[in-house]
Amino acid sequence: EAGSQGGLLRKTERDRDWARSGLQEKNNHILVLGLDGAGKTSVLYSLALNRVQHSKAPTQGFNEVCISTEHSQMEFLEIGGSEPFRSYWEVYVSRGMLLIFVVDSADHSRLPEAKKYLHRLIKINPVIPLVVFANKQDLKAAYHITDIHEALALSDVGNDRTMFLFGTQVTENGSEIPSTMQDAKDLIAHLA
Q1: Whole domain around residue 46: which residue ranges?
Q2: What angle separates helix 111-124 from helix 83-93, to the nearest 10 degrees?
Q3: Where, by residue number, does Mg(2+) bind (predicted)?
Q4: N or C: which end of the chain has fewer CB within 10 A?
């Protein structure tokens, strides 16, 4: 399925054999990874559309999104966060140009698991720039971004790595994205 909508090109493929296609040979993707339920798809579409866009269905496989800006075109590759898809993360992180890691700020019990996977990924590619989205900051139970920084041990990612942490939320569907998300989008375009 492919469609175009205001600078957004979306392709969704549920078949795992897709990973063996030509996509695997590309090295220019901005990877969007994180545990299932973190809000990766909602964050990605909100960045693409400059409007809050909620996603209710978890990504089953791969989701490729192209975002056009005034000066560039960025290709994002989201890989599902449930257990069967995490093995693909390591394959793609070695070839990615930027890693966006999304965590659910309100799901305290899963932060140690998110930390484990994040640190495994950055060991595979010790130079890939890292942007962490501490998502769902609008929820009452959400940890503040300083607590997320500590829970994910982000001070251990290395002094030589470019790393940013943003507190994000995708609140009312259809509303304009918060300024922090616009700042993050501008930063990602600059890093890419």
Answers
A1: 2-191
A2: 30
A3: 41, 59
A4: N
Q: With bands split at pLDDT 50, 70 and 90, how would you rate the model's confidence at 174? A: low
> Is there a binding annotation on residue 38?
yes
Structure tokens at 38: 């973190």
Give me the CATH number covering residue 129: 3.40.50.300
What's the rounded mean pLDDT across residues 128-133?
Answer: 95
Amino acid at 117: Y
For residue 36, say whether it is annotated as part of any ligand binding site.
Answer: yes
134 carries a ligand binding annotation = no
Per residue in 92-120, pLDDT (tens digit) is 998 899 999 999 999 999 999 999 999 99
For residue 181, with 0-12 CB atoms within 10 Å meaning exposed, 13-18 middle and 19 or more buried, which class applies? buried
49 marked as binding residue? no
138 annotated among ligand-binding-site residues: yes
Q: How many domains does the chain have?
A: 1
For 155, other C-beta atoms within 10 Å of its C-beta total 10
